[in-house]
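Thread: Alpha-glucan family phosphorylase, structure

OP (GT): Posting the sequence first so everyone is looking at the same thing. Length is 570 residues per the record. Can we get the structure tokens written out before standup tomorrow? I want them in the notebook alongside the other entries.
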Amino acid sequence: MLREFIRNERIAYFSMEIALQNDIPTYSGGLGVLAGDTLRSAADLQMPMVAVTLVSRLGYFHQHIDEEGGQSESADTWAPEKYAHPLPAKVAVVIDGRDVWVSGWLYVLESYLGGRQPVLLLDTDLDENRADDRQITDRLYGGDAAYRLKQEIVLGVGGARLLHALDFHVRQYHLNEGHSALLTLELLRRHAYPADGLRPGDSPYDIPAVRELCNFTTHTPVEAGQDRFPYELVHRLLDDFVDNDTLMLLAGREELNMTRLAMNMSDYVNGVAKRHAEVSRRMFPGYHVRAITNGVHPHSWTSIPFRKLFDAHLPGWCHEPEQLLRADCCIPKKELWQTHMEAKQELVRLVEERCHVSLDVDVPILGFARRMTAYKRPDLLFYDIERLRAIARKQPFQIVLAGKAHPRDEQGKQLIRQLYGYIRQLSDDIRVVFIPGYNMETGLKLVSGSDIWLNTPLKPFEASGTSGMKAAFNGVPNLSVLDGWWVEGCIEGVTGWAIGESCDDGESCDVANGNDAAALYRKLEEVVLPLYRDNRDGWISVMQGAICKNASLFNSHRMMRRYAADAYIR
Ligand SMILES: *Cc1c(COP(=O)(O)O)cnc(C)c1O
């Protein structure tokens, strides 16, 4: 099974989470979906990669929501043996002074175009390990700082060693976010100079040689979001893995900052949108941070009705999404609209099933689904309930919401409770529903079945955002704050609409929520809803704009060709 993958050189892609398929819960949100789309595109394009992640046997979590909007969680257990093959090797890493054995599973990600990519799912649930060590790879983003650091040791150090033990030929490493940055320390150890040739002040490691091997993609536009560990914990768990002076030089004096370590150890560093790269450069002066804007996987994020439509009019679009540039001329408007209505029916059915509410297919649906966390501001639309109600009285619309809050994000959980409160308050005037259990499957139904895809993050916290790109593949225009990818994607009135102003310098430009809410209401009331109601032809032109000018560009094929040309081949 492995043999076909160890013949040639590969790019080793490390990510704490990867969304492999809907029923494998090894992801929490956008980062994992991006990692999955990265591999799906690499498979379609036959780019040789090997992915390394944790098996996360208990998944992220299964979301339950009570009548009041209170979220509770249960394990989302899955059985790796049903989907993957046991790996024929195991390696040891030292954690807290003892050997922890790491093996895992080979999952083969198959492209519907025939490409195959190996994914190693690291697992410490082995007889050799102590009971608590067997749980290190159980819960994605679960546990305390010590648990997280152990996971990151397994991912970075264990992953690198397992690749070696399995005979993979790694051409370059790609660190998707800082969680796997300890990998660079393992590489430093492999590139240590013989101690007897060193003079005082010499680095004991060939740092440039390691930097040449590493690429780092950062996803965090704020210091507070970076993965950091106190050195006291690091010294206890990691031993003297590399010499302390080198570690502090590369990862920070005060605490071990994974982002800083990854930045220092990678010759190629990029942010996930142009705006995000600007923000990152400001956060890390002196570093050369480039931009490769995220994209989504064409086949995975296009609903079945739209796949059929594109297949009929733009054959080859799945391998060459640039074909979608022609969608405005090649797809009759009437067919585009009918196809959208099919996708919308699907969403209406889902809402009936899950929420026991009947939506009206003739009334526009505003869709909003994201991780429920403060900066995403899922409550912004409800900032002024009376105003919202007044708009709906003149021009009716419906709202579909979904999203999970991290189990320890109390603010995020409070937001879901607030949303349930708004649903109740508005029940006589606006149909608003919340679909529990946001995942890849409901995600696709949401982005394809809505009429308008809403996005209201606090600037500049949205590094890229990807759900809006998925909407574009289904002809659903975005109505979004100008942050992340939308700074590049928005052509006002052509691909969708902006909420408020852009702030060109990328400086911290968060305006008061009230301003953004007012801008949102104004745009909805004066531009978006009237166009939908009074000018269907004009509306369909915007749907075409989303496909032609957004989907043709913001896809993971373009993204991977960029990574190949700019980062991997150098
Ligand atoms: C696409 C996706 C996300 C990311 O969406 P954003 O717009 O970046 O917030 C999160 N979760 C799921 C299940 C997704 O499919």
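GT: Both are above now. Quick notes for whoever picks this up: The chain has two domains: 2-266, 304-555. The radius of gyration is 24 Å.
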